[in-house]
Design goal:
The complex is a heterotrimer of chains A (about 400), B (about 300) and C (about 190). With about 300 residues, chain B is α+β, with helices and mostly antiparallel strands. Chain B contains ten helices and twelve strands. Chain B has a four-stranded mixed β-sheet. A two-stranded parallel ribbon of chain B has the order 1-8. In chain B, strand 5 and strand 6 form a beta hairpin.
Chain lengths: ~400, ~300, ~190
């Protein structure tokens, strides 16, 4: 009964918090809502016309949606980069960031699920995936495994953050017996979602560009670059608009880790490039399509070189202590990493894998306007979700939003 | 629609099709489709009822009283095999279009189950020097040869393996089929297929009423909705009744051979035993039932 | 386990030598049998397809003109020049065969085998087989040529002249049917 009381006040308080804010907050929320609305409108177009409203065709049957899905799985998984040092080594400066990291993971996974939903031809048949009424084709289908992993990860992160925040709301420390095993579990779970997502591609014998043993390591390492980059920028924004304070040493530590991961990421890319170019089998054509273009088809080429350039620049920026500890340079580095990894891992991963197609045909895929708008809607929705969650979490972490005995009594 | 809310209606709104229904229109057929079980799990009576329902639906939609959807099963002791004589194929694409007519593919959207690749003799079979869009005045052209590719009906089919909901599987006679009412349209199978054999209905497929082939099979050529994957089924509606597939019958140079591989007297067995046959992308271990040879 | 079994089956003929039925229909690679013994047999219920008329459609039978009573039989080996009721120019192994290698000089409505037997026009395979033995065998086996009907029952066999004009047996080039749409078009 008492818990119910706590919960009631928590929910009511949360709604109040979400609804109140300054003009900038309202403008931001309105902007995100507009994005979501545009996306919804674009999606109704797609629902009535079919996926013909995208630029996807039989030759390139996965594209922008699935690319974004892949990238966002990485962002979600990256919460673990922050959890590992925070909990395993009880390294205090990062601990405060973990909550936000896991909230980001929740928002990112939600966006992932939405990107998959908009990509499938019959979203209303999603129940075919639910064992019981439907069937989940495990162990053979990698997408089936991905459904399990992603949903599990979503629930796990949701439970961890909700539990932690709810306890703090009651001005109690979380019960370590419940809390720690969940946190421990979230670490392999984060690795698992990205590994399974990589296996979704790596398991396809038809696509030599994806059918590589180092795809999963590449996914994880690149996620450990892009995830923290997103987090670092978000932390600073949060610091600006709330009482939340992030210690500089925490940021330096994170950027140092990012330098190592980016170095490893580039090494793995180099290993892949060497293998393809030196072997010079037919499989190298996908690399050619990425880096030089094939028979005049070179839409992706400037993007890929830009991405590689960004990644290298960020690597050197973060490698030097002086530059990674300079707040401006650090933010530039984060932006570079974000762009580099985003291009390399979404379009730069999906498109060359399918171009040329399995019968050697080259169809130059460029997302359609409607496709971009649907994606905008999803990102808008994810942003909205994340904004609200952060808006609620911040005063709890600051100790400003907590259970008030009197308020509850007044109601009685 | 009747005013009383049926259990199915209720379940439907619970199931979340209400939103989709506003976009695509929700009638009884939509309901029936929404809750239809996977083909493999349908009971005999239920299947019977659905087949009748589908036949009526197509009779009305195409104003064709002959439209019949069957679900003839695999014959025991039959495993289909196909062989194509590359030395004869002239690349005339008669097979491509006969297939479209036989299998009720979308016309406007041009879904082709067979893709004929023009290749250069000097490069041999090399997909990176292939052109499916060739269109000279006459074929064959000097220095070129032609490689038609459709579903290879693999024994170790990567598409079947990849489907998250088990909407595609291999039948006892070796035909890999798709359940159009179970497919969620995720296109994993298309990404998994090394032969580009699977086609997606990006838009609602349009078939002019007079062009409908009324002899239809549940797992084959019945009209498909948008948003599902389809592919060659060896003309399941014909071959399960003992007939040759449409592409075999149309080929003007007789380059296409089809039959029961388990029958030692069949022409397909003769080809397998006496010709040096090969399969596409053998290194992938998909073990196709579709063979190529130079006769 | 499956793989190793398949390997065994593949390797068996190499190790054990020839003589057995080597057909392996469960894998990518298929070993041809080293020696195919005997001739494939045509089933008794085989239906032979009609052959199109290769001559001018207005002309009735060959004997309408080539009536021995009106036209002298010229047995001088030569190539017929000029228009010959749609059957010219003659393009069938021109330097090796001529009219009376296939047609009977006395009865133009019959074909003549090399042993002197006269056969009807619908029995072309017997005649063609005299030179094209290997092709004929493959035709009977169903590899050369085309069959329609049922793979497990009654079939119609296209005969040689169903597809090949005996006077110019090479196929004419065909106009290809339309190419598929490029994906860019529907964007």
């Amino acid at each position: 009964m008492k818990t119910l009381n706590f919960f009631g006040q928590w929910v009511a308080g949360s709604i109040r918090i979400v609804l109140t804010g300054n003009k900038l907050y309202y403008a931001w929320v309105a902007f995100l809502m507009a994005c979501t609305a545009i996306g919804l409108w674009a999606y109704t177009n797609q629902l009535s016309e079919g996926l013909i409203t995208t630029s996807l065709r039989d030759q390139v049957s996965w594209g922008f949606y699935i690319g974004n899905f892949t990238f966002l799985v990485g962002v979600a998984a990256a919460a673990v980069t922050l959890v590992v040092p925070a909990y395993l080594y009880n390294w205090k400066p990062i601990k405060e960031i973990v909550v936000y990291g896991e909230l980001l993971a929740v928002a990112a996974i939600t966006m992932c699920a939405l990107f998959v939903m908009v990509d499938i031809g019959h979203p209303e048949r999603f129940w075919h995936l639910i064992p019981g009424p439907g069937i989940l084709n495990v162990p053979s289908s990698m997408l089936a495994w991905d459904v399990i992993a992603l949903n599990g990860y979503l629930v796990l992160n949701f439970v961890i953050t909700t539990y932690l925040l709810f306890r703090l709301f009651q001005r109690k420390e979380p019960n370590k017996r419940i809390f720690m095993p969940l946190v421990w579990l979230s670490i392999p779970a984060a690795i698992a979602i990205h590994t399974v997502t990589a296996f979704l591609y790596a398991g396809l014998i038809s696509r030599p560009y994806w059918n590589s043993a180092i795809l999963a390591p590449r996914f994880i390492v690149s996620a450990f670059c892009s995830g923290p980059a997103v987090m670092l920028v978000l932390m600073q924004i949060l610091q600006r608009f709330s009482k939340f304070k992030i210690r500089k040493e925490a940021m330096w530590k994170i950027s140092e880790l990012m330098a190592y991961f980016m170095g490893f990421n580039l090494f793995l890319l180099g290993a892949e490039v060497f293998k393809e170019y030196y072997s010079d089998t037919h499989h190298v054509t996908h690399m050619h399509y990425m880096f030089t273009g094939v028979e005049g088809h070179d839409t992706l080429v400037p993007w890929m070189w830009f991405a590689v350039g960004c990644s290298f620049a960020a690597f050197f920026l973060f490698l030097r202590r002086k530059s990674r500890q300079n707040i401006v340079l650090m933010n530039i580095g984060c932006l570079l990493i974000f762009m580099g990894v985003y291009i390399e891992k979404s379009m730069g991963m999906v498109i060359p894998g399918m171009t040329p197609d399995t019968l050697g045909e080259i169809y130059e895929y460029v997302p359609s306007i409607n496709e971009l708008l649907v994606a905008l809607g999803i990102v808008g929705f994810g942003g909205l979700m994340f904004t609200f969650m952060v808006k609620i979490a911040t005063p709890i972490l600051d100790g400003e939003f907590y259970y008030k005995e009197r308020e509850a009594k007044k109601k009685d | 629609m009747t005013k009383s809310v049926s259990r199915r209606d209720f379940l439907c709104s619970l199931g979340g099709c209400a939103a989709a229904a506003t976009a695509v229109g929700c009638d009884n057929i939509t309901h029936s489709k929404f809750f239809r079980s996977r083909f493999k799990e349908l009971g005999e009576e239920e299947l019977e009822r659905i087949l009748k329902e589908l036949s009526t639906e197509n009779q009305e939609r195409f104003s064709n009283a002959e439209a019949q959807v069957s679900a003839t099963g695999a014959q025991p002791g039959v495993e289909f095999g196909y062989a194509l004589d590359l030395s004869r194929c002239t690349g005339c694409r008669r097979c491509v279009h006969a297939c479209v007519d036989e299998n009720n593919q979308g016309r406007e959207e041009e879904i082709h189950w067979i893709r004929v690749l023009e290749m250069e003799e000097k490069h041999g079979i090399d997909f990176h020097h292939a052109d499916p869009y060739y269109s000279p005045e006459t074929v064959p052209e000097d220095g070129k040869f032609y490689l038609p590719v459709a579903c290879q009906q693999c024994r170790n089919a990567p598409c079947v393996k990849s489907c998250p909901v088990g909407a595609t599987w291999q039948e006892d006679d070796g035909i890999v089929v798709v359940d159009y009412d179970w497919c969620i349209g995720c296109r994993c199978c298309m990404a998994a297929c090394p032969y580009g054999a699977r086609r997606f209905n990006w838009a609602e497929p349009e078939i002019p009423a007079e062009d409908l082939n009324p002899n239809m099979h549940y797992l084959g050529n019945r009209p498909r909705p948008k948003g599902v994957v389809e592919k060659c089924t060896f003309c399941i509606q014909k071959t399960r009744k003992g007939e040759y597939p449409a592409c075999v019958e149309i080929c003007p140079v007789g380059s296409r051979k089809f039959g029961n591989m388990l029958d030692p007297d069949s022409e397909i067995r003769y080809v397998l035993e006496n010709k040096k046959v090969f399969v596409l992308k053998a290194e992938l271990n998909t073990r196709p039932r579709f063979y190529y040879f130079y006769g | 386990m499956k793989t190793s079994l398949a390997c065994l089956i593949f390797l068996a003929p190499l190790v054990a030598g020839c003589g057995e039925d080597h057909a392996e229909i469960d894998g990518g690679a298929v070993f041809p049998k080293r020696h195919t013994v005997g001739m494939p047999v045509m089933p008794a219920d085989a239906i032979l397809a009609d052959a199109p008329d290769f001559k001018n459609p207005d002309t009735e039978d060959c004997s309408d003109c080539h009536d021995p009573d009106f036209m002298e039989i010229d047995t001088e080996v030569r190539i017929v020049e000029g228009d010959h009721e749609g059957m010219t120019p003659f393009k069938h192994a021109v330097d090796r065969i001529w009219c009376f290698d296939c047609h009977d000089p006395e009865d133009r409505d019959m074909l003549r085998l090399s042993n002197g037997d006269l056969i009807d026009y619908v029995e072309t395979p017997r005649l063609c087989a005299q030179c094209h033995g290997a092709t004929h065998r493959e035709w009977i086996a169903g590899v050369h040529g085309k069959r329609t009907g049922k793979w497990d029952g009654e079939k119609t066999y296209m005969v040689c002249s169903s597809c090949h004009d005996p006077h110019a047996p090479l196929f004419d080039p065909l106009v290809p049917e339309p190419a598929p749409q490029r994906p860019e078009v529907t964007r």
